[in-house]
Structure formats: structure tokens, C-alpha cells
Automatic annotation (TrEMBL):
This is Fructose-bisphosphate aldolase. It holds the Pfam family Glycolytic. Its EC number is 4.1.2.13. The keyword Zinc does not apply. The lineage of its organism: Bacteria, Pseudomonadati, Pseudomonadota, Gammaproteobacteria, Lysobacterales. Keywords: Glycolysis, Lyase.
Amino acid sequence: MSIELLAETAQAMVAPGKGIIAIDESTGTIAKRFASVGIENTEENRRAYRELLLTTPRLNEHISGAILYDETIRQSTKDGVPFAKYMADNGMIPGIKVDKGAHPLAGCPGELVTEGLDGLRERLQEYYKLGARFAKWRAVINIGDNMPSGTCIESNAHALARYAALCQECGLVPMVEPEVIMDGDHDIETCYEVTEATLRSLFDALYQQNVVLEGTILKASMVIPGKTCDEQVDVEEVAESTVMCLKSTVPAIMPGVVFLSGGQSDEQSTAHLNAMNQMGNLPWPLSFSYGRAMQQAALKLWAKDMKGNYAAAQKTVFERAKENGQAAQGKWEG
Ligand code: 13P
């Protein structure tokens, strides 16, 4: 591996005013998204939908790359151009989700650990040949009664670090994603404490596994109250808490941090990112790697009329990319 190449890719992923679109839903997850708008979950519908997203005109003005799913990186446009080639030809970096999902953690009822390390080196080598230059692994940290346990945090951090080291060996930038889940009635302070402990454990594990931080991207969740918490807070409080938590845990040498949307509305996700960037004086670029908050408007439109609304759906993808690209520079005007 070349550290310079990894660092170059990582920096390009968070170039000024650009972020990532996450379209790496597993077949099970996209089934839920399609079902919510009445689309049949066939391979052709999944392909056509990913083509709509990736071929959005001028997407590359605000999108540096996309995270694909195993099926998607093997698919092509209707004209026969593999999606990864289409992206590279249009100045966007292909990424790939490589974890095999979150499974029950033995000995810790209700908690999850992400699996997928067995055979990962060979899969990464294949994805590199297919054109991927970064890879994502998502750990799930739930907040609840006596949760998360130290065992859950440490097991997930260890797996993330093992995966990250393998990625770098294979020439792929690891996008490490420890997602603190928004479900629950916990307050913002609890989310802060859990996020802080999770990130401390993650960076400790990355250090132990000799992961080069210059060639790594952090995909973080925001510090935010649980969805059913009675004490919701304003945009500034989410922004300030998130930035403080990141500053106290994430080394300044990291090339960038991108956020997941995690169930926030489109507007919230953009407003929070914008407020953080307006604070200024940040050690790293803060950008986005949204799935739902990039796609949900487009999916609804496309579902109503796949042919008639095709261009309109692409227009909303572009608008969401543009707004989030502005927010990544603190220039979103709402
Ligand atoms: P959301 O933005 O919908 O949370 O998805 C981002 C992602 O990639 C989660 O792993």
C-alpha cells in the first residue's frame, strides 16, 4: 500500500464543498425503503434506481464519491457501463460497503456486533479490481438501560480496526462508521457520553492495529437527543455538542469526518452540518455521507411515476447534494 495514495483519496473524498452519497443499502434494507413507497424489490428496480441516483446530471459538482453495495458494484447503466467505471469517468470515487451486518453479541443481550472479517482480505482485493477505492464498515451502538456495555463498544472498535488495517493493506481507504443510534428516549448528554466513549475506544483500537489515520475517514453520528426524548434541542446545541465531542476524541491528523443522517429529516441533517461548519476553527473538514437524507425525496417522486418523474427525481438528488455541499462549507442559507 502507498500511504500517499490513501491520503490523496481520503482528501479527495472530503474536498471543499463535496461529500458522499450512501447508496449501499443491503437487499433487505432497500426492500424496506422500496416497500414504503410501493416499489417491487426486483434486481432490475434496484439497478434502475441506483442508475437514476448515480447519473444525476452535475452530481460530481457536490458529490466526491458514492458507497455501493456488493450487488451494485457488479451492475451497469442501461447502456452497459459498469457503475464503478461510470463514476470514475465522471470524477466520483467508487466506495463499497464490506461489513456483513450487525448480529447479536453473545453474552450481551440486546447488543450487536458487526461481522464480516472472515475472508475480508480476498473480498477487498476483488473490490479493488472492480474499481473501489474506499470501503465502509458500520458498527451499531444502541443506547438503552445499561447499554451500551464496555464489551459492546470494545468488540465493535476491535472489528472496525481489524477491517481498517485490511483495507489499507489492499489500497482502500477505510471509512470507519461507529453509529450511535438515535432510537430511544435518552437525552443529548447521554448521547454525548456514549459517543465520546465509542470514539475513544475506536481510536485506541485503530492505534493498536497500526491503522494510518492520514488514510482513514471517520463516518460519525451527530450528538443529538434520542428520537423520543422529551427534551429536544435547537440546531446550535446539536452542532456545538457534536463539535466538542469530536474535538475531544478525533486526532487532528484525520483527513476528514463525514456524518450519517441516521433518521434526521433532510432539513435537520443539512442545518446541523451547516451550523457546525459556521463555527469555524475546525481541525478537519466536516462533510456528509448521507443515505436517507440524500435520497428520500427522490425515491418518493420516482415511485409515483418511474418514467414521468425520472428527471424530477434526479433534480431533487442534485438539490440535496448542492445544499449539503453548501452546508459542508457553512454556506447554506436554508
Ligand atoms: P443514513 O444517512 O440513512 O443514516 O445512512 C448512512 C449510512 O451509510 C448508514 O450506514
